[in-house]
Amino acid sequence: MELGRRERKKQQTRQAISDVATTLFLERGFDAVTVAEVARAADVAVQTVFNHFPAKEDLFFDEPGWWTGPARAIREAPREADPVDVLEAEYLKGTRERLEVGHLKTWKQFVRTIESSPALLARRRLTADELEKSLTQALDERSPDHLRNRLIAAMYAAAQKVLEEQLMHALPDDAAPDELENAQAALEQAITQVFAVLRRGLA
Question: How far apart are the first and last CA of the chain?
Answer without folding.
Answer: 54
